[in-house]
Amino acid sequence: MTISETSLLAKVQNNFIGLDTVYTLADDRKTKRIYLDSTASTLMMGKVYDLVGKFLDHYANSHSLLHFSAKISTTQYQWAHDRVLSFLGADPEEYTCFFTGSGTTAGINRLARVFRDYRPDKDIVLVSIMEHHSNDLPHRKHAGKVVHTPLKIHSSGQPGCLNIDALKENLKKYGERVNYVAITGISNVTGIINPIYDIAELAHKYGALVLIDGAQMAAHIPVKLSDHKNPNRNIDAFVFSGHKTYVPGAPGVVVCRKDILLAIEPEEVGGGMVEDVFVDNYLIKDYFPDREEAGTPNIPGAIGLATAIQILDRIGMDVIYEEEEILVNAALKRMLENPDMVIYGETDVYKCTRAGSISFNIKGMHHGLTAAVLNDYFNIAVRNECFCAHPYVKELILDDMLDAIEDMNQDEIESKYKLLAGMVRASFGIYNKMEDVDTLINALSEIANGKEKFSQLYHVDESGNYVHKTFTMELENNFSIPDILDKYLNSI
Hints:
This protein is α/β, with parallel strands linked by helices. 40% of the residues lie in helices and 18% in strands.
């Protein structure tokens, strides 16, 4: 890493909204929050927050150049599209970018319908067992029959990335019926990285298209969608979201080959995507991104996202990946040294590389209790349960289940399953540092050594949440817009 890259990385790392948020803990200490929930949603980059605020001084709707503010909105919104294509290494002659509503989920639903209509004679979609529901359920609903491809099982017995041999067998088995392969770039549960370019090369060899769920990929590792020496390694479509790329409130993003989109009528219709409208018909625009963006877009969100990826690009995604890899590998290594820890997914980083996330459990403790104690006593924000990836989590905890249900009847098995069906996930972002890893590992060690003590401090409420018997969040730590708004309105 050069001096300039190091300097910029440090400057950006230390400028995120929420890094200095302080909460009072169950033992009355006041500490800064340690945010290890970036796989769910990242914090907001400070410079993006500043620049979007400045843009709002000029805000107007786009698609016009006739007044000052509209011209600014239109040109900056177009810059956002161009910036995304550049960030993902997508040739603007071959690919377009457009923004969608509810993050990656909206984009994948959209493309499931697009790919279905583009090749209606093909009714099979191949996905992996590790997919987030957002890259599984849309294909089930819109695209025909979904066939789940297993993961590679390593000598440790733990699953790793997609099993390429099994994918090849499915491509052979279903032949011309396969429309496309939909695969996550990085698992949102384990952080395991899939070889997306190898997958694309194999899928294209058998005539299938490739859709990448890039929700976890875009902010963590370099991506190159086109211009590979072997064109079969190019990606047909890639989807990600701003709320996982350091811009909460930013839209979802779809990057797709233009020829696919031009072959069918746009999935969304309305204002902005038509050239003209008559009583009995309408003419769709033949240029991008307008034809794919019906209605008024989330202009500030898109501009904020483009600002963030411009900064990431300037640092260098290879630099960001290398720095995060050090953190993740250090955390993984130290967790494995604790005999009370269970780590999910292949843990040999030479066999299976990871980015962003580690999922785990403490033996003999419910994942909900572990997450609650990490929050209440250590101010470490993590997530627990199944992370919208139920089939994958069930497969990962299978060995735990088999050990637990020996000599049990059916009712006991179901009860035990509910107890075990989940894990804790610590996930990292560009703002995390080695001291965050130190704090997490020390906290897990203290929790593991004090299982009985911590268990007695909590009860399970009607919703299944672990709640401290005596500690509640202090009023000064809470945040309520209605309360603040009432005080403001009452003061007028």
